[in-house]
Amino acid sequence: MSITLDQVTKRYQGVPVVNDVSLDVREGEFFVLLGPSGSGKSTLLRAIAGLTGVDHGRISLHGRDVTNVSARQRGVGLVFQNYALFRHMTVAENIEFALRVRRMRARERRERRKELLRLVALEGLDDRLPTQLSGGQQQRIAVARALAHKPEVLLLDEPFGALDAKIREELRRTIRQVQRELRISTVLVTHDQQEAFALADRIGVMNLGRLLETAPPDELYARPTTRFVATFLGAANLLLARQTPDGIRLGAAPVDVPGAERIDNRREHEVVAVLRPEEAELAPTPEALASSYIARGTVDEVVFTGALERIRIRLDDRAAAQLIGPENNPDVGMLEASRTQREQRMFPLAPGGRVAIGMRRIHVLPTPLSSFTALAAEASQAGDLGRHPFLVNLAARMRTRVSVRVEPALAAPAGAGRVSRVEPAGVAVLASAPGVLEQLEWLLRQGVTEVLILPPPPLNPQRVLIHWLDRFARGGTMAVAASLLRHIAAEAVYLGIMPAGTPDSERSLGIRELLDARSEAQAMHSLEMRTELRTGDSAAELAAQLKESPEPMLILGIAAVGQLRERFAAIFAGAPTRPILVVYRPVPGGSRA
Amino acid sequence: MSSFRQPSVLPGFGLTFGFAMFYLSAIVLIPLAALVLKAGTLPWSEFWHVVTDPRSVASYRLSFGASLLAASVNAVFGFIIAWTLVRYEFPGRKIIDALIDMPFALPTAVSGIALTAVFAQNGWIGRYLEPLGIKVAYTWIGVTVALTLIGLPFVVRSLQPALQEVQSDLEDAAETLGAGRFYIFRRIVLPTVMPALLTGFALAFARAVGEYGSVIFIAGNLPMKTEITPLLIVIRLEEFDYRAAAALGFVTLVISFLLLLSINLLQAWGRRWMVAGGR
């Protein structure tokens, strides 16, 4: 491994901008860190270069731990967005800077310079000043300068940002060529997915300081595991579908999903499906579709973009209800499709035209959090809860929707029986109030599997405590925690709690379980979490932690409804003041429910 | 005239150009021309006698020598102050930043009196320098101290924006290339702010040459020793020898012009890499 990051964290004024990032960049690999501005990607690059210290974690280059080594001695080459050439020095002096610092002899310096200028195809410009060169040429010189001292790794921070499209393409090719020729491990930071696709051997997508997914470009595009990556890489329509024992259903239509193996299909629940615009098929009637029909709609807008035609289609009501993206506005119900020239000729379309939509290929995200439903006994309460800033914010970040539902049974849940109308759809949200435990129990008995309890705003969780009681709840809780933590900038801490007086022999077992949980979270859900082991009563420990931590949130996994009252009553006593997300994964067969 | 007229977003080029020329003439050129004419009324031999008089020559040496020395001292310490103000965040930074301008606002006579009080043989600082054999008040050192005080803001204010502009990216780049702190300062930071430093130096120098009020109190004004040229001019005026005063003024003008011109040329040479369009 040429670059290894292990749980790297960097905070600014307490807020993590790089949050528990672990990464291996292979020898000679071109790795692209992709993310929106403010996602922490540039900070991470500066940390690798040694220009920014880290608060936690380790960085190694070729097996050498450089966490505490200064930028001077790290031996990396860094290229900046604005070139950062020394303007008072000629091209030759710029390139030779690193060599002069190392007191290399003039003749050798000159040879190396000639070699580098040939590499970036700018021979003969030695005596120019940077200001006499074009932007593209300046950036090539910057690349040559960064390579002069034969660095172990090359780091590029948005190197094409200041260039126009054509030069960008050219420089992209040069950099790829240079990288291949030198076989130097390279990390490039960008917010431009085209650039990432064009250059990367592997792409790592960052958001809110976390490294969400790492995969080769084609795989990342075809099979993203998170909502963020699905919508950040190319256009994506997000649809709510249902996982049933017989497979995935979108509305009434069964959907054939090839890559569904990673989805928990033992229980019925809502899932998020990604339909790429180019995988949507349009035809005059459902019968004329070659793929499975999903909905009808009216063409709203047709945009010609050259090779492709982009079409926005307003879905008819029933289907629109399933659509949660790309607009993140459930009222709009617009589906995006794109067609090739050939498809356009076969079935010309204009705004106002009616179409039947089919899907050729759909990808289901293995995320357990699909949508939110704010529930209350009265309409005004439910409405208020649906507008809770934390919830609205979270839903916006997750590109999903918050629906509001009045459920009179919540007023007196203890006496209410089973109400068939409450079908499990996404996360149920309850307002924190005395008696919330009864409401929670009632909801779980109705078949709801995730319930979020929200105290009044403002909420800004900094530390998410994760705890599960039962091994049956373990996988599900981890998946929910991973999904949630991709969308809030907080640190994750798994609390393992052993009963007081546990013999030492069992203690080591507890520690082992803790470490297992950590590596499983990392491997299966790319969730980096810290672990803490406590002894004592679970509820008391959790309550203490919730009280002591600044702005905490709790994710609690259980396998039986009864466990809430038996083991955690203390947490729900009165009205909880911290947000709590309960994850219920019943024991198969229901023997303990 | 239209040949050097440039298209501009601001209208009224003819009007503004005319006004600028008139203003420059009325305020600067005509008075200077009058000075030259006045000096020209003196017969050549007499002119030569006035300007090469040993007392005059000694005053030039003190005026220009002390001014150059003061500007140099300011270049060094002003740089350090500007660097501190730009690069570090510390309590009271805003207050110190405001204090820098004080020498601008203070009547120069007041600063002269204050300096004399501090540096006189029995002053706060002077009494500790006395046993060391260092006399400040009533010597050339005192003149330099006064000129340093009034020149400081020029250097600091010229440097501040330039230092702010030195992209920290440049320093980061140099660091990843293996350069140490001192090397980065010498090879990257200093060359980049050199034009601004020269501007500050030139302004401080020009101000010092013309300074009168603060110097006369601390200098003691001994002919041949601590007498600056502006003072000598005033003495001649008080003797109603206007032509001699004008002759001395003319010499001051010429020397100042030559020095400032060379600083400007040096500056242009230092900026040669900052051609238009460069980022």
Cα(first) to Cα(last) distance of chain B is: 32 Å
Structural class of chain B: mainly alpha
Mean pLDDT score of chain B: 85
Q: Which superfamily, in CATH terms, is the homologous superfamily of the largest domain in chain A?
A: P-loop containing nucleotide triphosphate hydrolases
- At CATH level 3, the topology of the domain at 62-228 in chain B is MetI-like fold
Number of strands of chain B: 0
User: What does the main sheet of chain B amount to?
Assistant: none
Strand fraction of chain A equals 25-35%
SSE ordering of chain B: HHHHHHHHHHHHH
Query: Shape of chain A, please?
Result: flat
- Tally of extended strands of chain A? 29
Offer a concise description of the structure.
Chain A has 18 helices and 29 strands.
Structural summary, described in words:
The complex is a heterodimer of chains A (593) and B (279). Chain A is α/β, with parallel strands linked by helices and 593 residues long. Chain A folds into three domains: 3-222, P-loop containing nucleotide triphosphate hydrolases (Rossmann fold), CATH 3.40.50.300; 234-365, OB fold (Dihydrolipoamide Acetyltransferase, E2P) (Beta Barrel), CATH 2.40.50; 372-584, 3-Layer(aba) Sandwich (Rossmann fold), CATH 3.40.50.12370. Chain A is 31% helix and 30% strand. A nine-stranded mixed beta sheet of chain A has the order 22-21-23-24-29-28-25-26-27, with helices on both faces. The mean pLDDT of chain A is 85. Chain B has 279 residues and is mostly helical. Chain B has a domain at 62-228: MetI-like (MetI-like fold, Orthogonal Bundle), CATH 1.10.3720.10. Chain B is built from 13 helices and no strands. The relative contact order of chain B is 0.14. The A-B interface holds A 46, 49-51, 70-74, 76-78, 80, 82-84, 86-88, 97-98, 101-102, 129-132, 135, 145-146, 148-149, 162 and B 167, 169-170, 172-180, 183, 187-188, 191-192, 272-275, 277-279.
